[in-house]
Amino acid sequence: MQNKGLIKFFAILFALVSIYQLSFTFVASKVKNDAKSFANGDSEKEVKYLDSIGKEKVFNLGFTNFTFNEVSDKQINKGLDLEGGINVILQISVKDILKGLSNNSKNPVFNKSLADATANQKGNQTYLDAFYDAFDANSKGTVKLASPDIFANRSLQGEGGVDFQMTDSEVKKVIARKVDESVESAFGVLRKRIDKFGVTQPNIQKLGESGRILVELPGAKDVDRIKNLLQSTAQLEFWETYKIDEIGNFLMAANESLKKTEIKTTEAKPVVKDSLSALLSDGKDSATASKGNNPLLDKIIAQGGGPVLGLFSPKDTAVVNGYLKRADIRILLSGEQRYAKFVWGIPTPIKDAKGKDVDAVELYALKGNRDNVPAMSGGVVTDAKDTFDQLGKPAVSMQMDGQGAKSWEELTGRAYTQKSNIAIVLDDVVYSAPGVSSGPISGGRSEISGAFDVTQTKDLANVLRAGKLPAAADIVQSEVVGPSLGQEAIDNGTNSAIIGLLIVSLWMMIYYGKAGWYANIALAVNLLFLFGILASLGAVLTLPGIAGIVLTMGTAVDANIIIYERAKEELRDGKSLEEAVKTSYSWRGAMSSITDANVTHILTGAVLFIFGSGPIKGFATTLLIGIVTSLFTSIFIARIFIDWNISKRNSLTFVTNFSKNIFTKFNFDFLGKKKITYIISTIIVIVSFSSLAINGLDEGVDFVGGRTFQVRFEKPIETEIVKAELAQVFDGSAEVKVFGNDNQLKITTKFKVQEAGSKADEEVNKLLFATLKKHFSADMTYEKFVNAYDGKNLGVLQASKVGPTVAEDIKTNAYWAVIGAMALVFLYLMISYRKWQYSLGAIAAVAHDVIFVLGVYSLCYKFMPFGMEIDQHFIAAILTVIGYSMNDTVIVFDRVREYLAGKTKGNFSEIVNQSINTTMSRTINTSLTMIVVLLIMFIFGGESIRGFIFAMLIGILVGTYSSLFIATPILVDTISKEDKDRVEKAHLDS
């Protein structure tokens, strides 16, 4: 081996750099463990501890020191499936941005196009492109985007804006820039909010041009609070309010009108006193106040007063909203009241008639106007902080700019004169509606008070300081993982990695003897390099990433196996050890097979990296890095030891007493069995397609959208009972399966998955808790059930949500990933082998393998004791199967090509059969090592990736079969007669 000294130098240097990079991970882990011990389970105390030592020196290398913050930045970060925490993808509403840019245009073509874009947006299509398609279809050239009532309005005029002379293509460029600016603004606002939230190492990044923003909060535990914080647009407004005596007559009239459509019977009811009617009739009973006969008034559960029209149960708000928005009801409003805007306050605990604590929300009527704009906007707020009011209750104080202070003084002066109230409204929710009792308020300082706790005021002050989002931000995908579940994943992954490493190493020693030891040393160095690169790149380690590392152990010895098997052949042909090693490491020896096999791996891994997301991207990252480090260590590190062995003139046979005669005289007529294998494979394909047509596949929420919850109970529980209970509250949408142990369930539902906002998520969580509470002990609370905390082993351990638009994108990406991977591999093999028949045989084998795996999943998902969902993990498995199936096929094809170009005697079929038989040791060994590590991962890797590993396990097994019995026979059958005759003539004449 030339340049041996240079290779040693770089190997040692790379090893030292890897150790240096990994040292930060060990130090950071130690400090975090110290923080956990100090906090004793108090997550807030733990975060404060880490924040307090952020700038302290914690790592001394002698020549330099590093603070904890610097150490944390350089460590290998753990993904949420290992660390626990919350991961969400927020979709900034481009629809809202377009509405704002159009100045809320009333143009019918524009508004219909917005609606059509929402309904018809395709997978991986941006909302903006969907809007343009809809606008072109609806306008048919009669309406321009640069119309004065669309984008050529006053707010978009000027330099860099839109004027009415622009073409649609010119306007599109301006709008694209404005939308991007709005998304960038949202990104900045969210970053400010997250920085103030108090989690270590938060991650926020824009996802391409989709208008989506990824937010990862490792270690975060308060689910509902975080979702509210992220989705709050912080649209702060100040409105004047109507009092109950001003709007009460309308409510009475509305109640009377509703009787005509909402009351189904005329059965007499006892007359009781009603809060609103009592107010309007001086406390006298009203004949219209019969309980049960008043669609609107009967929903009032407590009396209002001042600006509060009444208190209602939260479950009735949707019905009341529907009443107050009806045209036949709003027509009852007279004069300026016809612009009234009805909104709700924040939930407040009150005592019901039986003295029981219940939640209630207050109804307000804001003084609206023709343009539906508030008396004053919250954009004037320059600062906000949490504080306490005069009664010692938590509140938020705000400071306004100069213009805001002037407007605030005018507004409070008017409220003082009219004895009215000012509602402080955030995102259409009234937080407080104080009166002004001491004259106009100057200086621009105001205060928001209400039924707050300290946490709520901190979050409210945070979003007001960070600013408002330019458009609604809806959570379209989310995942919540508890820290205890993350620790289980770490334990499972570590155990499977160690066992896999030991078994692969043991097999290499048993089969190759001393050379196996050299391969094992190369494997250990490979793992050091792999982790060192992950640390230097700041990569995030996930559970699928650990699976990728375990798989790397299998691929790491593949190249050694191919080299060793070639060396054995050369030794059997009578060459010296030095000549055999030199030939096996040459291009004519093993290097062409190794190159082709690993290039196909890299191509499929790259496709997976491009189209994957989250944990799948982590899997692709470790796989790609592992391929590169495996090649280096297998080819160069092991070679250093082999050459050292030769220089010492020690014997090296690449065999042991156990393996020396295995496959040496193997002679099987593979091509003679092709009719049988064609029939078997045809039956497999027919059965698979039939099952896919009849049974379909168990598509996960990644592909169809929905919510999943992994819930652990105190004792085993019947799935059918839970399914029936949840179906009642989730409108029939509930799938329940045992997940691992029989006290753990995986619950899937599509209930309210299309509804945006944190309120829908919180409602689903509360319904789930209320339904399942009976199956837990009495001390289980909603907070314990939903939120994460250290040591949690009951309740929701993991939850995820995938919106329908994201699911469509994932499905589209999956389709193109598989097609793209197969197309890339086909082209590469055609270029490498210079005959399309090789590519056809390989692709036919891969297609056979993919169909087989799909068929197994379709046939078995209903009764297998582990999840067999078709999701992103499954697509990752399919792409991995494509890569490894190609690996086996390339090993065979490389020998076929060598023998056809060599001097082997026989006809075409005999030469090909000899080629296959001489590769059996390589084929079986490379497949066997992969199957072993996959079995280890399947057994010890944990329930969450068992279906993912099973797909790869089946794929590798059938891939080995197809490379021998499908790929090669198809190659032989498609080679032209002229080519066969030419080969046979050359071999017979030689």
TrEMBL record:
The chain crosses the membrane at residues 493-510, 517-540, 585-611, 623-642, 676-694, 814-831, 838-859, 874-893, 924-942, 948-972. Its main location: membrane. The keyword Membrane applies. GO terms for biological process: intracellular protein transmembrane transport; protein targeting; protein transport by the Sec complex. It is a multi-pass membrane protein. InterPro entries: SecD, SecD/SecF_arch_bac, SecD/SecF_bac, SecD/SecF_CS, SecD_1st, SecD_SecF_C, SecD_SecF_C_bact, SecDF_P1_head. GO terms for cellular component: plasma membrane. NCBIfam families: 2A0604s01 (TIGR00916), PRK13024.1-5 (NF009585), secD (TIGR01129), transloc_SecF (TIGR00966). Belongs to the SecD/SecF family. SecF subfamily. Belongs to the SecD/SecF family. SecD subfamily. This is Multifunctional fusion protein. The gene is secD.
